[in-house]
Amino acid sequence: MRKNKLAQQRNDFSILALDDDRVMTLTLQSYFQSAGFQVDAETDPLAAIERIRTHHYDILLLDFLMTPICGDEVVSQIRAFNQDLYIILLTGHRSLAPPIKTIRDLDIQGYYEKSDRFDQLELLIESCVKSIRQMRIIRKYKDGLQQIVSTIPSLYQIQSAED
């Protein structure tokens, strides 16, 4: 029962896996769908940017070394129109990974070195899910408070000084 409830809660979160290795994207998609997430896969970074522009995703699993553009350029383009997307950077080349300063400057939430085990990546995603859930609660409260504030004048029949 607990597993079904957890899967249902995860189903509220969407992930886009972007890697130029089709096997990797399919593996990520299969693994995280079986864990209860909605997962789409993309192998073309330019197509992925457009997909993020037109569809809602909560988390992006992003390969760092790709063509025609690398992961840091993908993030820069996405951040120009989407500040809310949580991004976890994936790399199979430890020596070519971006420095921590770059990860911070690009507002990337996590970093994962590819392996045949996804337990560390799953923990990073769980951390993102907790943060996203908290941000959703904050936005809900903010929207509710805004609605209350906007109805106060009509509740008290407050009129402008000119009226």
What topology emerges from the helices and strands here?
Elements: H1 2-10, E1 14-18, H2 22-34, E2 38-42, H3 45-54, E3 59-63, H4 71-79, E4 86-91, H5 100-105, E5 110-113, H6 119-155
Parallel strand pairs: 1-2, 1-3, 3-4, 4-5
Helix pairs in contact: 3-4
What features would you highlight for this structure?
elongated, 15% strand, single chain, alpha/beta, 5-stranded parallel β-sheet, 163 residues, 5 strands
Provide an overview of this structure.
Helix content is 52%, strand content 15%. It has 6 helices and 5 strands; from the N terminus they run αβαβαβαβαβα. Strands 2-1-3-4-5 form a 5-stranded parallel sheet, with helices on both faces. Helix 2 links the parallel strand 1 (14-18) and strand 2. Helix 3 (45-54) packs parallel to helix 4. The mean pLDDT is 87.
The Cα radius of gyration reads 20 Å
The total of beta strands comes to: 5
Oligomer: single chain
Order of helices and strands: HEHEHEHEHEH
Number of helices, counting only DSSP H or I runs of 4 residues or more: 6
Whole-number average pLDDT? 87
Low-confidence stretches: none
The neighbouring-strand order within the major sheet is 2-1-3-4-5
Largest sheet: 5 strands, parallel
Distance between the termini: 61 Å
- The percent range for helix content is 40-55%
In what range is the share of β-strand residues? 15-25%
Query: Which overall shape is indicated by the principal axes computed on the Cα atoms?
Result: elongated
Provide a concise account of the structure shown.
With 163 residues, the protein is an alpha/beta fold.
